[in-house]
Specification:
The chain contains 15 helices and 12 strands. The chain is an alpha/beta fold and 427 residues long. The protein has 2 domains: 170 residues, Leucine Dehydrogenase, chain A, domain 1 (Rossmann fold, 3-Layer(aba) Sandwich), CATH 3.40.50; 153 residues, NAD(P)-binding Rossmann-like Domain (Rossmann fold, 3-Layer(aba) Sandwich). It binds nicotinamide-adenine-dinucleotide. The site of nicotinamide-adenine-dinucleotide has 20 residues, from helix 8 and strand 7.
Length: 427
């Protein structure tokens, strides 16, 4: 294999996250006997755009210059798709790694996209709303030839939200001279955003649990569930599990965790968090720390907050028989080995949290057709796509002898590799 990083380091892509993404690709490529040329090609993103641009701070006198990125990993599958994050430590390598993971995720669930990711190196928590609006509009103008409904479709990620997507859509539309809702997903419904997008990741994850439970010999009625993180993914996962009749015995957020052995009243918790910001102070429940949460007696554990929380320090003490990864990268590589040795059934992040990008795909399709589906149609199609992907990954895992994470990557990488092979090399 001709190594695109022949001179040693990773050059401009150097970052811990890119090293991890490459290590994962290299490991799975060796296991599945991936074609050498395809492997070398997939190790580097196809197109990376770096810009710097100024935006005015409050008062219009101070002008700040920031670095911004958009990386498109694979262009062979259709347009590219992935979020935009605003964070103080974003760099090219991180964005490129996340773009690569998006390629595997969209391929795994069979969406007609390659992976992309964008970022602006800025701390959005210190910016005012008008500052974020100016920053967003300038970022969009800088990327005007890079994004588009047929080329690359951004979505929200850390530090960005529905409002930021609305500003991107408006700026793009002003530049091209007509309203173009399909340029971003995760928009407000009034602008062509999809109903049920907000709940999609949590709901999609929980739709896989009955099949996973059956696989390990559990029933959802008897299942005790613990959820780490009570934001978008955690709340809707907890709610969907609660509605399914399972007992959600503990949830936590950045302020700590709450516990009730008889099962928590999830809608009540959501109301409390909507009013008070966090779970802190919630009456009539016991409290647990975030560390204790991972080792509680339960059947299903759903990490849905931040990365790197299941580590060598707690992997031996986890009691759950199923781990469904709502968060991206919640399990470290060493912890993953321990979980496999302990025979804990893991639904890996690229499968478990793919409901978000799946409903984003629905949003894009609806925007292109100007024909909007009912919530019932969206939920049914989400369940169908997620259920099929789960079954296929489980089949690969059983028939080829891989753990679920490896099987999910094999499935994702295999489809991209086949598409690239039949397209061939131009010229
Ligand atoms: P969010 O900001 O809405 O919620 C995050 C939650 O985690 C909050 O309740 C916060 O209090 C809690 N939290 C933060 N740090 C914590 C800590 N150290 N310990 C315990 N709790 C902590 O974010 P989200 O959109 O729910 O995303 C959560 C995870 O899911 C992220 O890893 C994200 O990349 C991933 N993800 C999200 C989506 C989506 O559609 N939102 C899709 C795919 C993956």
């Amino acid at each position: 294999m001709a190594d695109p990083f022949a001179e040693g380091g990773l050059g401009e892509l150097e970052s811990p996250l890119y090293r991890e993404a490459l290590a994962q690709l290299d490991r799975v490529a060796a296991l599945m006997g991936l074609d050498d040329n395809i492997h070398a090609r997939l190790r580097v993103p196809q197109r990376s755009t770096i810009v710097t641009f100024p935006f005015r701070r409050e008062g219009y006198f101070e002008v700040e210059t920031v670095f911004a990125y958009r990386v498109q990993h694979v262009l062979a599958m259709g347009p590219t798709k992935g979020g935009i994050r605003y964070a103080p430590d974003v760099n090219l390598g991180e964005v490129a790694a996340l773009a690569m993971l998006m390629t595997w995720k969209t391929s795994l669930v069979g969406l007609p996209f390659g992976g992309a990711k964008g970022g602006v190196r800025v701390d959005p928590t210190v910016l005012t709303r008008p500052e974020i609006q100016r920053l967003t509009r300038r970022y969009t103008a800088e990327m005007i030839n890079v994004i588009g409904p047929d080329t690359d479709i951004p979505a929200p990620d850390m530090g960005t939200n529905e409002q930021v997507m609305a500003w991107i859509m408006d700026t793009y539309s002003q530049h091209v001279g007509h309203t173009e809702p399909g340029v971003v997903t995760g928009k407000p419904p009034e602008l062509g955003g999809s109903v049920a997008r907000r709940e999609a990741t949590g709901r999609g994850l929980v739709s896989l649990l009955p099949a996973a439970a059956t696989h390990v010999g559990l029933t959802m009625e008897d299942a005790r569930i613990v959820v780490h993180g009570f934001g978008n993914v955690g709340q809707y996962a907890a709610l969907a599990a609660h509605e399914m009749g399972a007992r959600v015995v503990a949830v936590s957020d950045v302020s700590g965790g709450v516990y009730n052995d008889a099962g928590l009243d999830i809608p009540k918790l959501q109301e409390w968090v909507a009013e008070n910001g966090t779970l802190a102070g919630l009456p009539e429940v016991d409290t647990v720390t975030n560390d204790e949460l991972f080792t509680l007696d339960c059947d299903i554990l759903i990490p849905a907050a931040v990365g790197g929380v299941i580590t060598v320090d707690n992997a031996d003490d986890i009691k759950a028989r199923i781990i469904a990864e709502g968060a991206n990268g919640p399990t470290t590589l060493q912890a993953d080995k321990i979980l496999n040795e302990r025979n804990i059934f893991t639904i890996p992040d690229i499968l478990a949290n793919a409901g978000g990008v799946t409903v984003s795909y629905f949003e894009w399709v609806q925007d292109l057709q100007n024909y909007f589906w009912s919530e019932g149609e969206i939920v049914a199609r989400l369940r169908e796509i997620m259920g099929r992907a789960f079954e296929e990954v489980l089949n690969i895992s059983i028939s080829e002898g891989y753990d679920m994470r490896t099987a999910a990557l094999v499935k994702g990488i295999r489809r991209v590799a086949k598409a690239k092979l039949v397209r061939g090399v131009y010229p």
